[in-house]
Hints:
Number of strands of chain A: 5
Helix content of chain A: 25-40%
Distance between the termini of chain A: 49 Å
Helix content of chain B: 25-40%
Strand order of the largest sheet of chain B: 3-7-1-14-11-12-13
Strand content of chain B: 25-35%
Structural class of chain B: alpha+beta
Strand content of chain A: 5-15%
Structural class of chain A: alpha+beta
Oligomer: heterodimer
Largest sheet of chain A: 5 strands, mixed
Shape of chain A: globular
Number of helices of chain B: 18
Order of helices and strands of chain A: EEHEEEHHHH
Amino acid sequence: MLVTTSVNNREYTRDVEPRILLVHFLRDELGLTGTHWGCDTSNCGTCVVLMDGEPVKSCTMLAATAEGHEILTVEGLEVDGELDPVQQGFTEMHGLQCGFCTPGMMLTARALLDRNPNPTDAEIREAISGQICRCTGYATIVRSIRWAADRADRAAS
Amino acid sequence: MSANGDRPIGFGSLRRKEDPRFIRGQGRFVDDVYIPGMLHGAVLRSPVAHGRIVSIDPSAALQHPKVHTVITGWDLEARGLAWMRTISDDSQAVLATDKVRFQGQEVAFVIADDRYSARDALELIDVEYELLPVVVDPRGALDSDAPLIRDDKPGQTNNRIFDWESGDRAATDRVFEDADVVVEQDLVFPRSHPAPMETCGAVAQFDDVSGKLTVWCTTQAPHAHRTVYALLTGLPEHKIRVISPDVGGGFGNKVPVYPGYLCAIIGAIDTGRPVKWAEDRSENLMSTAFARDYAMRGAIAATSAGRILAVRVDVIADHGAFNATAQPTNYPAGFFHVFTGSYDIKAAHCHVTGVYTNKAPGGVAYACSFRIAEAVYLVERLVDCLAYELAVDAAELRLANLISPDQFPYECKTGWVYDSGDYERTLRKALEIADYGALRREQADKRARGELMGIGVGFFTEAVGAGPRKQMDILGLGMNDGAALRVYPTGKAQLSISVQTQGQGHETTFAQIVAEELGIPPEDIDVVHGDTDVTPYGLGTYGSRSTPVSGAATALVARKVRERARIVAAAMLEASPDDLEWEKGRWMVKGDPEKGATIQEIAMAARGSVELPAGVETGLDAETVYDPPNLTFPYGAYICVVEIDPGTAKVRITRFVAVDDCGTRINPMIIEGQVHGGLTDGVGIALMEQIAFDADGNCLGGSLMDYLIPTALEVPDWETGFTVTPSPHHPIGAKGIGESATVGSPPTIVNAVCDALRPFGVRHVDMPCTPSRVWHAMRGST
């Protein structure tokens, strides 16, 4: 079947099997390999992308159901050579080690900050609690997202 | 910025050089490798834990329009490829031919156009099994009437793999007989799984003109894998290139050679097309290297005044259906015999029996430093059990028994020689950060109100950086590692190393070692790793060995370059090499600091026409291999505070203080990250994670719905501190740090849980301390 969806502000149409998962559509069909696959059960969140600004787990969603929606992947976070503050925060505060969970974590962080520009640490932990990082122990991820929030704060004032 | 600021030339909290690609989604993991014409493989796995294969019929799968081939164990048997040698020198089925011996064992390999079709075809393969009785309980494995699992091995008449002991049994028994106090405790370190976020996988490509095989695979030890692939397939080693690109976490899970890798290789040779195999999460949890699974019967002897005298332990080690544990050859129980821990005691003895069961193979993984996690858990729980029986404070008991600084180098009763330490200072620092006295007062108040608060104290000594070649090898390969350094004419450099990162940040820290030694800024140094065609030979990254071994090689190769630079500088400055002195980044004439040459100027001159003494080669490039004289012995003191909900028995960690000593600190930011990650592993192991089996050998932890890993909500904001006691034999004084926290935290957490349950008369709760277990412990039931 033909699936048309907007990914990172660009429209793509591909002829795929109806059963293809969004994560495989992004990776295998569009070559956007920044979205990872880590479990079959919606537990790990390495596959998180934003659909219309909300985090979704692309391993448990058919590509066909993304039709007509706006998908944002990690590859779309940097705009015109300028990194998203979340991306900068992860580097500044050592929010990543192996880098495998990082795209999903950053996208969830972006959605959180769009909704709640100045979250508490508890709200940050709650927001990323549907995702697993095996390397960092989360504290530096919380600091990374806090860094991004503080920076946006400064930019606004 | 000044040195050791944000952009240090040398040691300091430098931001990672790896990060720019990962934050843009430009990392390149194995599953990100796409090659034109690439096919996809999938493994058919056994649904039963023990069964004889009656028939395998792949005909329906072969009819599938997108299937290229199906490989069975019988196909491999005809080519002598059905069995492979494990890294513990046992045999393991690549694809089963006679029996299946654990649920999830590899039975057939399908190669199809795409990953979905390969999965579809698995359903079309018809395998008939004749069910056999199953061995699940490791103690029952040694019963005389237990079913024989490894009937494929000539001479194997029972399920015993090895018996191994260390220490002096007779001397230990004598100390126990004369001791005032003896405390015995059964402890189970349950089977857990490293579960890196990236599962295992491979892409194999075979060029039948050149005969060159290229394998991209999730390996922590690319060079060792190349040698193993050569030995297993018969392909010449120089025609095999192993590339371990970005690796999404290893933790020991990616040390072994898995059947899927070999199937991808054989499939690529058979089909003439590149073949990708990427396992799913259930396959990862059910079939790849698990960790721990030690059933320990421990005992500690002491005087009534609280002087620890001896420790002894009997262990049943469950190795699963094939002995595929990654240990140095002479150490079937790894470095478990460092279980005397951080205490100065008179005698020690351990006896370990390894057994086969109908479970997945493996046995060392998950950041345990070759079973030191088990050893530290044993001794630290025993010390707390002793504190319980003597009714003394757990911190005071430790302070009274720690090895003192003047005893180093310290030879423990099982033969390890600890290189350096100042244990009391580190423990006192942890007590100070935690404000231990105040915590105990808070606890007394809470107990008076019926609240359950526990304070756990733990101390650990690790032995990492395997290892000296005369003692330590894997499959006959000495555990040494190399480094090669090229300095280009413009003063930029490339360091290639035999270890590789799975998140530890080698591209940053190894550049910092060169920067510290040569004064070349880290951004001018490219660190190459994970590709056997362009890096020197070595055994890879696991057991916290990268910094102790390859880090040492890196410092030494940089010093070789520095000495070469001295000769070149002497020629440039028309001085004698003996008259030059080094300041970071520059050779200069003693007493005439104006007269000097920077390393960049020297690099250009070394390739230029400056006249060099006879025998001195052009350029500054150098290579070295490091054979460590001893392991390094990092250590730490941890304090954990928990609260237990009396209604639900759920354990919540409210504080965790970790003070680590890993000697010289290359990048404090990265060290803190390593510690945080290890502490989180410890929370999972102590409270949540277990690969359990039912009586039929069905794996009960085969998905992340069942195998629970900590999220951001289960862990506190870590409080870390450090002391610095350099290793005297390491070139820069550094010790490994990657696994310290994973080793040190589980007993500290369990100590806290048991401390909280003291009002109930509970001395011990086995891990994982789930609400159900804690609930039963509170009620004196199991």
